[in-house]
Design a protein that fits this description.
Residues 321-498 form the DNA mismatch repair proteins mutS family domain. One of its GO terms (molecular function) is ATP-dependent DNA damage sensor activity. Pfam families: MutS_V (PF00488). This is DNA mismatch repair protein MutS. This protein has 516 residues and is an alpha/beta fold. It has two domains: 14-285, no CATH class; 306-515, P-loop containing nucleotide triphosphate hydrolases (Rossmann fold, 3-Layer(aba) Sandwich). 54% of the residues lie in helices and 11% in strands. It is built from 22 helices and twelve strands. It has helices at 3-11, 25-28, 30-35, 44-49, 52-59, 65-76, 82-93, 96-106, 117-121, 138-152, 155-201, 214-224, 235-243, 245-259, 261-285, 334-350, 382-399, 415-432, 444-447, 478-482, 487-503, 512-515, and strands at 291-292, 294-295, 299-304, 315-319, 323-328, 353-354, 358-361, 366-369, 403-407, 434-438, 452-460, 463-468. The strands form three sheets. It has a six-stranded mixed β-sheet with strand order 8-9-10-5-11-12, with helices on both faces. A four-stranded mixed β-sheet has the order 2-7-3-4, covered by helices on one side. Strands 1-6 form a two-stranded antiparallel sheet. A hairpin with a 2-residue loop joins β11 and β12 (463-468). The longest helix is centred in the middle third of the chain and has 47 residues, at 155-201. The chain is elongated, with a radius of gyration of 31 Å. The N and C termini lie far apart (85 Å).
């Protein structure tokens, strides 16, 4: 090592520690929206309904913005390319040493504090203006003019000095913010290229795809780096304000990025994919219950659980050619069952695995309606919000087959209109896709039995069971006393319930007459 290199290493600040920068969800979503805007099998409400923000945060531990963006893209994608990723994830999940080696090579990615997918996959950087070729000559011209003014004493030369100094200042001030932002983008690009080189240098078959252009990646990394000497204490200000090195580097590095955009995009995709696989493998290695899903036309989930519930009770749920109408007592876990089924179907399509002992799943998008609420800011009542979401689901059903997961449809209007509207919408949706709905309006079960098989969630011993049938014994009124209501309230409610029950029409045996 040369003396200059040794002194530089001593004087330069130490490399920044690894700190997982708190990127906001909109930053994480930019890669999908910029590079893959048309490959989207999830919408925003389903994303929130299925608790995917919380699940993504669980997956993203010790993962950089690159891996986070790739995981986010896969969760929204249509499932293409899952097989190749699943092979890598299986391999890594079984080999802790391999995971550790790859994790060490990717650690620098977590120093990134800028999202760069827009810079790479958005509009190409504009080429440097022609006048930037004059920038290297401005500082020497200024110094030469100062020397001439001092040597000759010609006052007019000081006017030239002032003009050149003002020109340097104007250039510096005008590009200051752009240079600072680009510097942070470059720092992230360099971490990506460095990880590319480190991964390619490993004797690992999973990184073989990075070796072909690893030398180009390393060369580009050096090309866009600023001089280490320029970062010595006190040197940066002198270098930038007098010699315009930061502005000159800004234009030169933008041209370099523009020339190698194909390499940078490819590097981003491969590095991000490998880190995403690593995150999945690390997660599965710590997961007690999961399986690799089999692709099929039906839905069959044996002993399935929700990954966000620490004490999740496993359930077995299967559909054969029909959707499902799910009933059950209050608080039994119907909404949790819907989220469990929905999330596992999404993960099977995105990653290839489920949190179950065995899983057969269709390669279909999943859309849900579970969290409609009054929107005061938009002046939208609960029922209007429910109607808007129902129209969205019907429009999605027109585009392609899908799985529709719905919890308590049309709560925001009176009982009779709620049942009528729900029956019409659910029957139409079930003709175009697979509908899984839960409701306390049990009369919907016979109305929709030609399209939705009735299933009931009940407690058997210490566990839960999903079995064919409709809830027979409700518990809404009994919960009044259990939750501290006066006995007189419970009694009045019971009398009203008995009266309403006697007024109800006889159950409808089938709904063909209504929907034919």
């Amino acid at each position: 090592m040369s003396l200059l290199s040794s002194l530089t290493r001593l004087l330069l600040p130490a490399e920044a520690p690894v700190v997982d920068y708190p990127f906001v969800p909109s930053d994480v979503a930019l890669y999908r929206r910029t590079a893959h805007p048309d490959a989207d099998a999830l919408d925003e409400q389903t994303w929130d309904d299925m608790l995917l923000p919380q699940y993504s945060a669980q997956l993203a531990r010790e993962t950089s913005i690159f891996g986070q963006q790739e995981l986010h893209r896969r969760l929204h994608a249509d499932g293409g390319g899952v097989a190749a990723s699943a092979v890598r994830v299986r391999t890594l999940a079984q080999d802790a040493g391999q995971r550790q080696q790859l994790h060490a090579a990717c650690t620098g990615l977590r120093r990134a504090d800028r999202e760069i997918s827009v810079a790479l996959f958005g509009a190409e950087p504009a080429p440097a203006p022609r006048w930037t070729g004059l920038l290297p000559w401005l500082p020497p011209a200024l110094l030469l003019t100062v020397v001439l003014a001092l040597a000759t004493g010609v006052v007019a030369l000081w006017g030239v000095v002032l003009g050149l100094w003002l020109l340097l200042t104007v250039v510096q001030v005008h590009y200051h913010e752009a240079v600072e932002e680009w510097t942070r983008i470059l720092a992230t690009l360099q971490q990506m290229l460095r990880a590319h080189s480190l991964l390619a240098a490993l004797d690992d078959p999973l990184t073989a795809g990075l070796r072909e252009d690893a030398a180009r990646a390393g060369k580009l990394n050096r090309r866009i780096a600023q001089s280490a000497v320029g970062n010595l204490p006190g040197m940066r200000e002198y270098r930038d304000w007098l010699w315009l090195m930061n502005v000159r580097h800004y234009f030169a590095s933008r041209d370099a990025v523009r020339a190698e955009l194909a390499l940078l995009r490819s590097s981003f995709e491969r590095v991000a994919a490998l880190e995403a696989d690593l995150a999945l493998a690390r997660h599965l290695a710590q997961t007690p219950r999961y399986c690799w899903a089999e692709q099929g036309g039906a839905v069959a989930l044996e002993q399935v659980v929700h990954p966000l519930l620490a004490q999740a009770e496993p359930l077995t749920f299967a559909l054969a050619g029909q959707g499902a109408f799910i009933s059950g007592q209050n608080g039994i876990g119907k909404s949790t069952l819907l989220r469990t089924v929905g999330l596992n179907l999404i993960l099977a399509r995105a990653f290839g695995f489920c949190y179950a002992e065995r899983a057969v799943t269709p390669l279909l998008p999943v859309y849900s309606s579970m969290q409609s609420e009054d929107a005061l800011e938009g002046g939208e009542s609960l029922y209007i919000a429910e109607l808007r979401r129902a129209r969205e689901l019907l429009a999605l059903a027109e585009r392609a087959p899908a799985v529709f997961i719905i919890d308590e449809i049309f709560r925001g209007t009176n009982h009779l209109e709620s049942i009528s509207a729900a029956a019409a919408v659910l029957h139409t949706l079930s003709q175009r896709g697979t509908v899984i709905v839960s409701s306390h309006n049990l009369v919907l079960a016979p109305l929709l039995e030609d399209r939705l098989a009735p299933w009931c969630v009940s407690r058997v011993g210490d566990g839960l069971r999903v079995a064919p049938g409709v809830l027979q014994e409700t518990n809404g009124i009994s919960l009044l006393a259990a939750r501290g209501f006066d006995q007189a309230i419970s009694a009045k409610a019971g009398r009203v319930f008995d009266w309403l029950s006697t007024q109800a029409h006889s159950p409808v045996s089938r709904a063909g007459g209504f929907f034919d």
